[in-house]
Specification:
By secondary structure, the chain is of the alpha/beta class. The protein has 14 helices and eleven strands. Bound molecules: pyridoxal-5'-phosphate (PLP).
Length: 461
Amino acid sequence: MMNDAKGLLDLAHLAAARYLATRDERAVMPSASAIVALAGFHGPMPEEPSEAESVIEALDRLGSPATVATTGGRFFGFVVGGALPVTVAASWLASAWDQNAGTWVLSPIAAELEEVAAGWLLEIFDLPRDAVVGFVTGSTMGAFSAFAAARSALLRRTGYSVKQKCLNGAPRLRIVTSEELHPTNVAALGYAGFGLDDIVRCPTDAQGRILPETLPALDDRTIVVLQAGNINSGACDPFESICEKAEAAGAWVHIDGAFGLWARASRAKRDLARGVELANSWSVDGHKWLNLPQDSAVYICRDREAIDDVFGVSATYLMRDGRRQPNNMTPELSRRARGVEFWAALKFLGRSGVERLVDRCCAHAKRFAQGLEKAGYEVLNEVALNQVVFRCEDEARTRAALLEIQASGVTWLGATHWKDRFAMRISVSSWATTAEDVERSLAVMIRALRSVRAGPRGSSS
Ligand SMILES: Cc1ncc(COP(=O)(O)O)c(C=O)c1O
């Protein structure tokens, strides 16, 4: 049975179908015993082959119980989507194809689906239709790609080629951003050769939006990094005024829209990201709000020349013709065909389906905020998008309530610091979350508040 593809796929299919069918019954976080059982995977490198079925069987027996149920409707931690079933199925087929999406000739289907999905994404976000769209693993790599392009473009205008001379001796560029910048952008800036000393951090308002009047004078050696969707509040920076100033000064604006750029898909929400189209580059995840399987994101960049300068590869066997050559747009050559899942989700949902997905998550977030406030929690952000930040009356009770909620098995959310206060954060990003999931989760949160108020700390104060 070693190479019986059909038998193995059937086995995996059964296990996966069983997993998804029991998704709503399983605890959101794996049990302690499921974690302990992971020891079953550890051991010396096997000398001899194993039966292929036993490999899949072990993955299901030991692996499935140790998963975090992020595909279910009651996981609200971090910002994580839930993989629409159609995208999981598309991903299976694409795995069977096992396409190398690096070049058109190596996979016409991968390149063409990227091209189609790229066009649809530009339409949904209403961004320049001739922008480059590169398919990467996540927003971190999307931001890295965009920063590398920005670096190339700004330095080339001074007559300096990073490609030719590296960064040693290059004119210094400056990064202007807010104190609220998502930390993965700082990592991405590091990959692109920028240090912490190159970053100027500006203060923000109560929702974490950069205060435009605090920006230093911009110039043509500045990269401004803004956010569509603050990780805590969900708020967007004021793009319009800053992008206009940046353009006049010759500065580059990049927007981290990991989840918040999807607000553009909703007629009710798109105004929150007003002016986002004026930037030079953007990064946005598919595996968050579009609910694609991990790991999928794109960066979008107006400057085709800069992308080619950074990622363009020349070799006789790597053809460069009029067709899409994905390897000339991303840091990798060989990679999986991410465009398949983007295409499948967009084809399945259509423009109206993406809008409904975004609107539904935002409505659930609003319901959470109302229910939490009514119960006596303090909601710390304006809930305009899909994020809710809330706390009890003090840090000790907030920590205790969080532990109780996390231990419930019914729902899960994480901790954060918001404007110097310890808090809990809900992100509603999954297609799978229903109104019933929200009510069940709210009930756990409300019970936790009562319990910490009635508990030893509550009664002693
Ligand atoms: C606002 C924001 N930016 C960037 C990232 C990084 O995205 P990824 O994990 O896909 O690299 C995240 C992830 O949570 C995020 O929420």
